[in-house]
Design a protein that fits this description.
Blueprint: H1 2-7, H2 11-46, E1 67-72, H3 85-92, E2 95-96, H4 97-104, E3 110-111, H5 113-132, E4 136-137, E5 143-145, H6 146-152, H7 155-161, E6 164-165, E7 170-172, H8 176-182, E8 188-190, E9 196-205, E10 224-234, H9 239-256, E11 261-265, E12 277-285, E13 290-301, H10 303-308, E14 311-314, E15 317-320, E16 322-330, H11 331-341, E17 349-350, E18 363-364
Parallel strand pairs: 4-9, 8-14
Antiparallel strand pairs: 1-11, 2-3, 5-7, 6-7, 9-10, 10-16, 11-12, 12-13, 13-16, 14-15, 17-18
Helix pairs in contact: 5-11, 6-8
């Protein structure tokens, strides 16, 4: 139009058009800013909307309505007074909570001698187990940007559990689930490459400010612990089948470690907002005469992947893929279960047979 005006020697029109042309970049910038603000406002609303729930999820207001669906293993009957893992560990000289409390505060620990080696044996066992199942091992960052952490959970959960590095806009991971999820941020994965089955060993860090907190001395609930995590990216039609596969993996691990456990189907009131379906595996604790959570399994369907723009591509069609995660083993709680369930009258601890090949001892004995 400017060119035509100049050809017609209409300088007034040409100047008006040139003025309007110069205004276009500013108008585009303002429109983009408005769009970005609308997208930001939309996303703030979206993250408050919970996932839909599975038809398998029981309806209930809180954890009291969770449903026990399976029990496995024999609960041992002791002919002596059982000791807690704290008593056993301190008597055997293999754990030190006092020194760690002095230098780090409550919720930390020093693992010594055989217990430190048992921790490493559990890690090696877990890694070997997952490799045999055909999962790919991934070593992940222990710190993530806030955006990537927000993708894996809601804001309240983050405030209660994540150690934030505020001057850098980062946080320490509470589980390798967070960094495994973030690894494919904004990726489009061909259907032919799905499912992607990963696992990772990492140190995990949690503030534990919420309802549970660090309210007892010991290894059961700590600010720092070792965990092997399973994670799957898959096509939507495969996620329910793969949920069962992850559950089977965890049950097999606990069976190999000779630990009695039960499986709980979480009810709607105990289900985190980002989860479609979830189950806990709980191990028997003879010192409390009750089961305690040792594994958490979740199908998050599209919820997490949508936040990070992770898609699949199938014959030119694109869609949001599904994500699932599950604990393979958290070594601190597994050690508690082994110490308490496999303790002997003389204060020694028998080591499960599956771990013998990783250790030079088959039991932890009191020093004479």
């Amino acid at each position: 139009e400017i060119g035509n005006a100049k050809k017609l020697k209409d300088e007034k029109l040409a100047k008006e058009l040139m003025k309007k042309a110069k205004e276009i970049p500013d108008k585009i910038k303002k429109i983009e800013e408005k769009c970005n603000k609308l997208i930001e406002d939309r996303d703030k609303i979206l993250i408050q909307i919970p996932n839909i729930i599975s038809k398998e999820t029981p309806i209930g207001k809180d954890e009291s309505k969770n449903v026990e669906v399976e029990k496995s293993g024999n609960i041992r009957k002791f002919d002596f007074k059982v000791k807690t893992h704290v008593e056993l560990g301190e008597n055997l000289g293999i754990i030190d909570f006092e020194s760690s409390a002095d230098v780090s505060g409550r919720g930390f620990y020093y693992l010594k001698k055989e217990l430190g080696l048992l921790n490493q044996a559990l890690i090696r066992f877990g890694i070997d187990f997952m490799i045999e199942k055909g999962y790919d091992y991934i070593e992940t960052p222990l710190m993530l940007n806030e955006k990537e952490i927000y993708a894996s959970m809601d804001k309240n959960a983050i405030q209660e559990s994540v150690y934030e590095i505020k001057d850098e806009g980062k946080g320490l991971i509470g589980t390798a689930e967070q960094s495994l999820l973030a690894m494919h941020s904004k990726d489009t994965i061909p259907k032919s490459q799905l499912p992607k089955k990963y696992f990772s060993y990492s140190m995990c860090f949690r503030k534990e400010i919420g309802a549970h907190g660090i309210n007892e001395k010991g290894l059961w609930r700590t600010h720092q612990f070792n965990k092997i995590e399973q994670f799957i990216f898959c096509m939507p039609e495969d996620s329910e089948r793969l949920y069962e596969e992850l559950l089977k993996n965890s049950k097999e691990i606990l069976q190999k470690l000779e630990l009695p456990y039960r499986v709980l189907e979480l009810c709607s009131g105990d289900l985190a907002d980002w989860k479609y379906r979830s189950a806990d595996l709980e191990v028997w604790r003879p010192t409390t005469n009750e089961y305690g959570e040792i594994v958490s399994l979740s199908n998050c369907t599209e919820y997490q992947a949508r936040k990070l723009g992770i898609r699949y591509e199938d014959k030119g069609k694109r869609g949001i893929l599904h994500t699932l995660n599950n604990t393979a083993l958290a070594t601190s709680r597994i050690m508690v279960a082994i110490m308490e369930n496999h303790q002997q009258k003389d204060g020694s601890i028998k080591i499960p047979k599956v771990l013998h090949k990783y250790l030079s001892f088959k039991e932890i004995k009191p020093k004479k």
